[in-house]
């Protein structure tokens, strides 16, 4: 038994010695020094010891140019305000006319509606209407003198002049912003394209008007981008043979000509447009719009006179309805 154990011991002894020698050699080998990994702080030290966050992908602090200028976004040009002066007066179709006009104006950006009543005071109907219209607006009133209400005399003169006076007073003590003025009678129909056309008016712009002067349309005649005459059914010899709905004026022109108004004295019927435009421009300066005045974008529609023959003289209904 002992001989067997000794035999096995001497067989394993060389292997045990080899293992001991290898371990001894490994422990005597010099250890590799551990180099600490650099620590990159997410902050750079600014002036006064302030910790500033460093951006990824940028050079480390000290290698980046200080106060590096960056291109600033350019502000968008301000959209010129369109000022629409609308004379109006009490009649059965007044609210219907104003409703149609308001529905158009709501779709026009940067528009201010100046509504001027031919009355000694603001009416409740128009005041309530404007309050619900949801439009930037100004409500004015001025009565037409009785002596000027005869058939054949110019209408809405005092109301248009009141709108002009409000505009001049509004911009009297401040730098005028870009703007365009036009006279929007409440019995006309307007294409939205017309407002895009007039917004670029530099001085006075013109365009055709449909259903006016006893013709399907009237228009300025244009050659080489300049107005040279008028296609009209009535008095083509007028200096400006154009309808009130057929032109727009730059706000700056209105402010630069404070005495330019619609005249009563010496003004003949149908000559108000010419008498006004003569004060601020010449035919040569007119700016043709609407594809060189070949497109109709406004119509002098005029609501048909309503038939109220069966309306009772006294109110008989149990409720009062505003029409």
Automatic annotation (TrEMBL):
Pathway: Protein modification; protein glycosylation. GO terms for biological process: carbohydrate metabolic process; chondroitin sulfate proteoglycan biosynthetic process. It is a single-pass type II membrane protein. It comes from the Eukaryota. The record marks 218, 310 as: Interaction with galactose moiety of substrate glycoprotein. It catalyses: 3-O-(beta-D-galactosyl-(1->3)-beta-D-galactosyl-(1->4)-beta-D-xylosyl)-L-seryl-[protein] + UDP-alpha-D-glucuronate = 3-O-(beta-D-GlcA-(1->3)-beta-D-Gal-(1->3)-beta-D-Gal-(1->4)-beta-D-Xyl)-L-seryl-[protein] + UDP + H(+). One of its GO terms (cellular component) is Golgi membrane. Gene3D superfamilies: Spore Coat Polysaccharide Biosynthesis Protein SpsA, Chain A. Mn(2+) binds at residue 187. Glycans are attached at residue 292. Its cofactor is Mn(2+). Signal peptide: none annotated. It is an enzyme of class 2 (transferase). Coiled coil: none annotated. PANTHER family: GALACTOSYLGALACTOSYLXYLOSYLPROTEIN 3-BETA-GLUCURONOSYLTRANSFERASE 2, GALACTOSYLGALACTOSYLXYLOSYLPROTEIN 3-BETA-GLUCURONOSYLTRANSFERASE BETA-1,3-GLUCURONYLTRANSFERASE. This is Galactosylgalactosylxylosylprotein 3-beta-glucuronosyltransferase. It comes from Aotus nancymaae.
């Amino acid at each position: 038994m002992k001989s067997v154990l000794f035999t096995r011991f001497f067989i394993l002894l060389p292997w045990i010695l080899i293992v001991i020698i290898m371990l001894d050699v490994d422990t005597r080998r010099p250890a590799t020094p551990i180099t600490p990994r650099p620590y990159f702080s997410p902050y750079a030290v600014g002036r006064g010891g302030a910790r500033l966050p460093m951006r990824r992908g940028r050079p480390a602090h000290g290698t980046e140019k200080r106060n590096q200028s960056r291109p600033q976004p350019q502000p968008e040009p301000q959209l010129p305000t369109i000022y629409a002066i609308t004379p109006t007066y009490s009649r059965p179709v007044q609210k219907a006319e104003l409703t149609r006009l308001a529905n158009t104006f709501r779709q026009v950006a940067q528009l201010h509606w100046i509504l001027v009543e031919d009355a000694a005071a603001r009416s409740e109907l128009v005041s309530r209407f404007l309050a619900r219209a949801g439009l930037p607006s100004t409500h004015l009133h001025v009565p037409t003198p009785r002596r000027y209400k005869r058939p054949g005399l110019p209408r809405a003169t005092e109301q248009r002049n009141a709108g002009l006076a409000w505009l001049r007073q509004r911009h009297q003590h401040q730098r005028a912003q870009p703007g365009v003025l036009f006279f929007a009678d409440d019995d006309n129909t307007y294409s939205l394209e017309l407002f895009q056309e007039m917004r670029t008016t530099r001085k006075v712009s013109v365009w055709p008007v449909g259903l006016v002067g006893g013709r399907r349309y009237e228009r300025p005649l244009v050659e080489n981008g300049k107005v040279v005459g008028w296609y009209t059914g009535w008095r083509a010899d007028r200096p400006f043979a154009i309808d009130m709905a057929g032109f727009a004026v730059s706000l700056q022109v209105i402010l630069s000509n404070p005495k330019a108004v619609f005249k009563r004295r010496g003004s003949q019927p149908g000559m108000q447009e010419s008498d006004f435009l003569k004060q601020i421009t010449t035919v040569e300066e007119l700016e043709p719009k609407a594809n060189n005045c070949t497109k109709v974008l406004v119509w002098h529609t005029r609501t048909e006179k309503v038939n109220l023959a069966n309306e009772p003289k006294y109110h008989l209904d149990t409720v009062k309805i505003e029409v």
